[in-house]
Every structure is written in C-alpha cells, then in structure tokens.
Design goal:
By secondary structure, the protein is an alpha/beta fold. The chain is 39% helix and 18% strand. The relative contact order is 0.18. The protein binds adenosine-5'-triphosphate and magnesium ion (MG).
Length: 275
C-alpha cells in the first residue's frame, strides 16, 4: 500500500514538474539579450538601439532584432531602407546599418500597413526572424520586445535560447505595476534578468535644475524588491528623442554626449555578465 502511494506521489510530481522546453539557439549569435518591459512607451526601442551601439563602441559585433511584429520601430530608428535579401528564397540576409545587422517586420511590409494578425501568425513570424535569418558572426543580438506579457514574450521564454534580459521602466507607479508582472514572468519561465534600467529618470532644465517628472527611486526600489541589479538612470533628453527621429542613435552619432556615456556605463555592466 505504501509502495503504491509512493508510486502515485512520484507520478504526480513528474506531472507537476515545469515543462522542459527545447530552446533553439539563434545561429550566428553568441549572446542573446532581450530588452523588455511589460509596459508600453517606456523607451524599450530607444534603449535597445542605444545600448546596441554602446556595446558596439566596446568592440562587440552587434545585431538588432525588432520583435515588435505589430508595431515595428527599427526601420525608423535606424533609417533602414533596404529590404532583406534572400539567395535561396528561404533564408533572409539581415539589412546592415552602421555595421549592425538588423531585422524587423517593418522591413518586410509597407511602413503604413497594419499587421492584423492572430497570435499563431506572430509566433510564426518570430520563428522566421530567429531561425531563418542569416545572422553572421555576432557577439550579441539585442532583441527589442513589444509591450505586454503575451505571445512574443512566451515564444522567447519557451522556444528560443535567451541568455539574459534587461528591463526598462520609467519611475512612476503605473509603469512599475506592469514591470513587476514582466519580472515575474521572466522569473517563472527561467529567463535570467541582468538588471533594471530607469528611463526618463530626470530632466535637467536650462537652469541646471533637476526635475524628477515621473517620481523618484521607484525603479531602484523595484530592483531591490525582486533581488535584481539596478543598471542605471537615463535622463529625459531632447537629443535622445531627436536622434531617434533622425534615424541615427545618440550613442552612434554622438558617442561623447553625456547621455551616451550613461549608456556606455550600462553597456559595460551588461558586457561583464556575458560568458
Ligand atoms: N530618455 C528619453 N528621453 C527623451 N525621449 C525619450 C526617452 N526615451 C524614450 N523617448 C521617446 O519616447 C517615445 C517612446 O519611446 P520608445 O518607442 O523607445 O518606447 P517603447 O517602450 O519601445 O514603446 P512601445 O511599447 O510602443 O514599443 C519615443 O518618441 C522616444 O524617442
Ligand atoms: Mg518599442
């Protein structure tokens, strides 16, 4: 009887074990880094591209994958014009800009075409962009994630070999509420969070006064609460927004800019956690 009970116990334990997913590596890439936040509009895409060129400044060969299938930003942020080419009609060659290899849904469809897709089609597009793109010789691939904790996040957590994630947030409570959900999702699915970045942290006026428009300390506090590293404060700065709109990220166009230096510091911390 006891033996039977033990047997049933064992089977149940086996069933309740978290599923072991087979995770596909992205070929041609040594380190895969997600830039994420469950919240929309907090600066994930801005941080992705500026971090990418800060890492490039540190001597790494970078790739950038825009995983926002519904709202791709990369073509605008990097002024990408060339559509990816294919030699065999199956695998795509990434578009190159400023020595970075780039891929985005925005390169495959017309800029103003809305993507009216159900989840399975998004998952299929992500599989294509990770498995059917000829990423070559990249030290790091930065993946710009869409907002939310939906199909895209799950696809990366369960199917694709991801080495780390950074979480971007702005300091106000409303953003942090979503961000906490995002942190727990990665923790639950076993994606290693390298740390949190506080974006639009402060604004320095012409009077040199510091204005904390969205509050203070919230992101650091959240990092502590979830036992994560805090990676740095990025100010709200017009030059950052301008460079995005001009299609040439600040860390690439003005690497000596005070804000670029902050990105460089964060990039150093991130680089030190690569194996
Ligand atoms: N630190 C900053 N200083 C000035 N402007 C910023 C900063 N961070 C982001 N922005 C601007 O805020 C807007 C939203 O940023 P971005 O598109 O990077 O956010 P996102 O989180 O990727 O949005 P989404 O959730 O829609 O993907 C952009 O116009 C961007 O230029
Ligand atoms: Mg974005």
């Amino acid at each position: 009887m006891t033996e039977k009970k033990e047997e049933i116990g064992k089977t149940l334990k086996e069933k309740l074990k978290p599923k072991q997913f087979v995770k596909n590596p992205i070929n041609g890439v040594k380190y895969t880094l997600l830039v994420s936040s469950a919240k929309g509009g907090v600066g994930k895409s801005t941080v992705s591209v500026n971090l990418a060129f800060a890492l490039q400044k540190l001597g790494l060969k970078v790739g950038i994958l825009d995983a926002d299938v519904y709202g791709p930003s990369l073509p605008k942020l990097l002024n990408l014009k060339d559509k990816p080419k294919s030699e065999d009609g199956k695998a795509m060659i990434p578009t190159i800009q400023y020595d970075a290899q780039c891929m985005s849904m925005g390169l495959l469809v017309d800029e103003q075409t809305p993507m009216i897709w159900r989840g399975p089609m998004v998952i299929s597009a992500l599989r294509t962009m990770t498995q059917k793109v000829l990423w070559k010789d990249r030290d790091v691939l930065i993946i710009d994630m869409p907002p939310g904790t939906g199909d895209t996040q799950l696809t990366f957590a369960q199917e694709i070999k991801v080495d780390g994630a950074v979480i971007v947030s702005t300091p106000q409570d409303l953003a942090l509420l979503d961000v906490k959900r995002g942190i727990q999702m990665f923790d639950k699915t076993g994606v290693k969070i390298l740390g949190l970045i506080d974006n639009m942290s402060f604004f320095k006026g012409d009077d040199n006064k510091i204005y904390k428009i969205f509050g203070e300390g919230g992101v650091e506090k959240t990092a502590k609460e979830f036992n994560k590293d805090f990676l740095g404060h990025i100010p709200l700065h017009q030059d950052l927004r301008n460079s995005s709109d001009n299609g040439d990220p600040l860390t690439h166009s003005q690497p000596e800019h005070e804000v670029s230096k902050i990105f460089l510091d964060i990039a150093k911390k991130i680089k030190s956690s690569f194996h």
